[in-house]
Amino acid sequence: MAEDINTINSNKWIDNYADYLFNYAISRVNNSDLAKDLVQDTFFAGLKSAKNFQGKSTERTWLVSILKRKIIDYYRKINSKKGKAEVRMNFYDDGENEGNWLEERVPQNWENQSEKSIETEELKNQLEACIDNLPEKYALVFRLKTIQEFETEEICKELDITASNLWVIIHRARTQLRKCMEDNWFNN
User: Fold this and answer.
1) From the CB of residue 144, how many other CB atoms can be counted at a distance below 10 Å?
2) N or C: which end of the chain has fewer CB within 10 A?
């Protein structure tokens, strides 16, 4: 009996996709606990909407699209005034507005944004310098796959390499980048 192409196997999601989804999430939110939560939310949403899976893409692609929406929702939430005021506080003690918090009076983030911007720019510059120091092919493959998010098949076809070769290059590039960043950013 042939298996329906629209059938998904959620029992294997953790084994097959958890690491990939976590790496995808951590590269976008830069917080391990948050990335884990987003992956968990992705799996849960996938289970809830499994009946909508049409088989037009792979399970992994489908799960990544769910994860992308979860990440976008997260950033929308933290960038909205409502998201910054997750905890409702009593702004008024009496009258018709008792117990309400006015959105326009949500406390603003007091962190020094200019310091963060400078540090972010310095980090970006150091990472770019480290990428520029990679062998030319490593830098190209790393940028195409990790930064520009091209599909593996597209990169392999364009550069005339195998998928396994691509992943070896990505691994070596990441290893060299980690060493470069440790030497030039984290240990300074």
Assistant:
1) 19
2) N
Same domain, 63 and 136: no
| H helix intervals, 49-105 | 59-79, 81-84
Domain residues for the domain of 58 are: 1-86
Q: What is the DSSP letter of 12?
A: G
At residue 34, the pLDDT reads: 92
Query: In the structure encoding, which two tokens stand for residue 1, read together?
Result: 């009996």
Tokens of 38: 């987003």
Q: How many Å is the Cα radius of gyration of the chain?
A: 22
Whole-angstrom distance, CA of residue 114 vs CA of residue 37: 29
Number of domains in the chain: 2
What pLDDT digit, counting tens, does each position of 50-70 carry?
Answer: 888 887 888 888 899 899 889
